[in-house]
Design goal:
alpha+beta, Mago nashi protein, 2 domains, six-stranded antiparallel sheet, about 25% helix
């Protein structure tokens, strides 16, 4: 089977978290259809094996007692090309995914072309996560992610923010009351780096610092100082410096 990007009219993504323990373990089926010029989506997400846990154990991990979710409706068609592009560059494998993973079923002109296993598992899992987040924002289940950043240099304080709208794949950078659209991939890579280091909440403040340094609020209202309250986990990857340089590029741009 050699489904081309141009003949693809939809895909079905099915995911099983595999050996991940509850309450995190889950499965989902995400069907996408753009055969009629718009993007129709159907999501069924179910958390598994929670009967093994007490209600308090589930709540203590930050979940609710009913995290399953279903949706059938439209999504912004801006997502179609990224899906098609990922499909076109994907290599497939015969390797099983008994310990968890994602499968892709291409739909060509309404016809199911059979289940395929992508070799680039992480890329497809991230795409699926982005699409689910887009659904959550579209139905107002969750708000767009906004990260605030403050840089204090001598007597100059620069405040800025980056808001990621998954619903329409748009990222807005705001500084000094002015906003501009940022390249999606740049922003997503920066967001990955932002959530890479270790955040020490016992050192966090409810207000940004005023002394020389860089401060970040990852959207939960708590401010952390880079290099003190935010520290690298992996000594071979300097995430803290990458956060600084990533926002510096935006500030100077």
């Amino acid at each position: 089977m050699n489904t081309s990007k141009s003949s693809l009219t939809g895909i079905i993504l099915e995911y099983d978290s595999g050996i991940v323990p509850p309450p995190y373990s889950h499965v989902f089926r995400l069907a996408l259809d753009w055969g009629k010029d718009n993007l129709e989506v159907k999501l069924d997400l179910h958390y598994t094996e929670r009967e093994e846990l007490s209600e308090q154990e589930i709540l203590d991990e930050g979940f609710t007692l009913n995290d399953d979710y279903s949706y059938h409706g439209k999504l912004n068609s801006v997502w179609i090309h990224p899906i098609q592009d990922l499909f076109a560059t994907t290599r497939w494998t015969n390797k099983d995914i008994d310990e968890g993973g994602i499968t892709v079923t291409p739909i060509e002109k309404g016809k199911d072309e059979g289940v395929k296993i992508p070799a680039n598992q992480e890329e497809w899992q991230l795409m699926a996560q982005d699409l689910i987040q887009a659904i959550y924002e579209t139905v107002k289940k969750e708000l767009p992610l906004t990260v605030h950043y403050r840089l204090v240099e001598n007597d100059l304080t620069t405040d800025c923010s980056l808001t990621v709208h998954f619903s329409n794949r748009e990222v807005i950078f705001e500084k000094a009351g002015k906003s501009r659209t940022i390249h999606w991939e740049y922003a997503i890579q920066l967001m990955k780096v932002v959530f890479t280091p270790d955040y020490h909440y016992e050192l966090a403040k409810e207000e940004p610092g005023k002394k020389r340094g860089a401060y970040i609020d990852c959207g939960d209202g708590f401010w952390h100082e880079l290099g003190k309250g935010v520290v690298n986990i992996d000594p071979s990857f300097d995430a803290v410096t990458k956060i600084r340089s990533g926002f510096q590029t935006l500030i100077e741009g």
